[in-house]
Amino acid sequence: MSKSIKEPTPVATGRILALTNHLKESLNPADDIQKAKMSAPYKFQGWMALDKDAAKGNMVWQEYEPKTWTDDDVDIKITHCGICGSDIHTLRSGWGQADYPCCVGHEITGTAVKVGKNVKQIKLGDRIGVGAQSASCLECEQCLNNEEHYCVKGMIGTYNSKYADGSKTYAHFTVKIPDGLTNAEAAPMLCGGVTVWKPLKENGAGPGKRVGIIGLGGLGHFGVLWAKALGCDEVVVISRSDAKKADAMKMGATGFIATQDKGWAKKNTRTLDLIVSTVSSPNMPIDDYFKLLRAHGQFIQVGAPEDVLPSLNILAMISKGCKMGGSLIGSPADISEMLQFAADKNISPYIQERPMSDANQAVIDMENGEARYRYVLVNEKHVKELKASL
Ligand SMILES: [Zn+2]
Ligand SMILES: [Zn+2]
């Protein structure tokens, strides 16, 4: 599987440039050999969803046409791709009708095998990744404020979206993977990781803060790892049962609340400053979650529902001066910051690697809640070929 990436316009390039350092053409003849090997002709193939039954393990491996190549593009020879909940929402048209045929997957890592001449921040052979966003206008107030993910004109997703020229996108917004992180480790951070990283950072997670993470899945497990590494005083996992308690404590949680225990909300009332909710259900006990907040506490929802959230008693927030909000992924700058943080702090996500050929079964297993805590598909053929080309 390989994807075509449109390189950010100069606004974004400038920012990513500050984080990378590969402007100089190499004079080493060995590089020319590597270039030749990497630029061998290739076709784009992927697990394609043809209709909403794809979510039941019916994706089809076939060729597809990526967006038209330009000198602003990068092609990635994909080695790894995490499976995110949004992939499944999209496969089954849960967030609205998907644009089939659709190649989901947006926690992508691999090697740059073709780099357009306008691209400054990536060089051939770099280990790079791309997350959930592939384009934005790069001119609006939000884009100019490092918030491309909140672009006024709308963000274009890495899958199930179209570029302005009408061609379907399969990727964009590349970031370099720092030394100290493998492709497998970095992949699930590109969407799952940053989705939780951003609201924690933005809302002051760190020393002096008591943080709660609702749901210990792909997103929630990152919440625990990040909050712990950021130095929060308390990191409390809120889950339905005790089943994942041992894992949570291993990840660094200092407390665990099982909502099937009677009186859990009362017992833990006013104990948390910041709650990040990674779950979404019309039945979630949102009023009880609010009880956990201390005065001036914040409740940030990142789990995006296919349905609606339950009606809520806002008095619980009014009476303590609390705030409720939402958060969506993060910008390329956020992703780069997070990856570097993970490398510096030696943080490894809890992942299960599975062969790319196993994608259909992995989607089914993920939907059944069996992932501990993120499936990462491995394109073993590409891993081998890339090793051989070095
Ligand atoms: Zn914009
Ligand atoms: Zn995602």
TrEMBL record:
Q: What is its EC number?
A: 1.1.1.2
Give start and end of each Enoyl reductase (ER) domain. Answer: 57-377
Task: Please indicate if the UniProt record lists Zinc as a keyword.
Answer: yes
Instruction: Recite the UniProt keywords alphabetically.
Output: Metal-binding, NADP, Oxidoreductase, Phosphoprotein, Zinc
Q: Which superkingdom does the taxonomy of this entry point to?
A: Eukaryota
Q: Which reaction(s) does its UniProt entry say it catalyses?
A: a primary alcohol + NADP(+) = an aldehyde + NADPH + H(+)
Q: Which CDD domains match?
A: CAD1
Question: Which InterPro entries is this protein grouped with?
Answer: ADH-like_C (IPR013149), ADH-like_N (IPR013154), ADH_Zn_CS (IPR002328), CAD-like (IPR047109), ER (IPR020843), GroES-like_sf (IPR011032), NAD(P)-bd_dom_sf (IPR036291)
Cofactor(s) required, per the database record: Zn(2+)
Q: Which SUPFAM superfamilies match?
A: GroES-like, NAD(P)-binding Rossmann-fold domains
| Biological process according to GO | alcohol metabolic process
Q: Which GO terms describe its molecular function?
A: alcohol dehydrogenase (NADP+) activity; zinc ion binding
Family to which this protein belongs: Belongs to the zinc-containing alcohol dehydrogenase family.
Q: How does this protein assemble?
A: Homodimer.
Protein name according to UniProt: alcohol dehydrogenase (NADP(+))
Q: Which gene encodes it?
A: adhA_2
